[in-house]
Amino acid sequence: KNQVEQSPQSLIILEGKNCTLQCNYTVSPFSNLRWYKQDTGRGPVSLTIMTFSENTKSNGRYTATLDADTKQSSLHITASQLSDSASYICVVKAGGYNKLIFGAGTRLAVHP
Amino acid sequence: GAGVSQTPSNKVTEKGKYVELRCDPISGHTALYWYRQSLGQGPEFLIYFQGTGAADDSGLPNDRFFAVRPEGSVSTLKIQRTERGDSAVYLCASSLGQQETQYFGPGTRLLVL
Question: Would the CB atoms of B55 and A98 count as touching at under 8 Å?
């Protein structure tokens, strides 16, 4: 069964600190992996997208990594800001399918 | 508008009633998706349209759920005989094509009392 699991479920950090969110997937065949940011009461917004051949992708203070052999991805947030408080969702697209498989998300709270 | 819009933003209804949720995709996007998101969970796929036709409706939970996109733009998700378990945020997304990035709307929060 195609699944995406994320950890931790929730995380609290102080403003200015770094953090890393994890994503493990069992999706086959793999097409690509995206990280989305979802603010409370809003729809998800794409942060990064990586295909099989890409190991890392950056978007400002967000850096995503992908290990296609171990089927793991991480999202590293550098110098966190209060506005980073949101849910971060790992999403995997299976090759040949039109629908995305979503993880449950990690709820990040950045405190001053 | 520049993004995907959904109406209403909130909907409260009673068990057994019929509801319609509307999605206006980004202009020119041929692909449109409906998802359902329960509290504390990631979105779950419901149905995907390519143009006017439903290319994949495997995520619809039962025959109380139905969606249309008659002119290949606006889509309506219809839920008959609503149940309390239908309470969730219903998200719509659109993309330029099947393989492109999906852009999400803000969602409709449905509460069935």
Answer: yes
**Strand, helix or coil at A4?**
strand
- For testing contact with chain B, the best of A50, A98, A101, A107 (most B CBs within 10 A): A98
Residue B77, pLDDT score: 97
Chain B CB contacts of A101 under 8 Å are 45
Of B40, B50, B107, the CB nearest to A43: B107
Query: Does pLDDT of A97 surpass 70?
Result: no
Contacts of B62 (CB under 8 A, 6+ apart): none
- The Cα-based distances of A30 to A45, B9, B69, B92, B101 in angstroms read 21, 34, 29, 24, 16
pLDDT at residue A95 tops 90: no
Would you place residue B44 in the very low, low, confident or very high pLDDT band (cuts 50, 70, 90)?
very high
Distance CA A106, CA A62 (A): 15
Bridge partners, residue A58, by sequence: A63
Yes or no, beta carbons of B104 and A43 under 8 Å apart? yes
Please tell me the distance from the alpha carbon of residue B93 to that of residue B30, in angstroms, as a whole number: 11
Place of tokens 């239908």: B86
**Which token pair is B14?**
């009673």
Closest by CA to A78, choosing from A19, A15, A14, A36, is A19
- Provide the mean pLDDT of chain B: 93
Contact A43 B106 (CB under 8 A): yes
Interstrand relation of B88-95 and B108-112 (parallel, antiparallel or unpaired): antiparallel
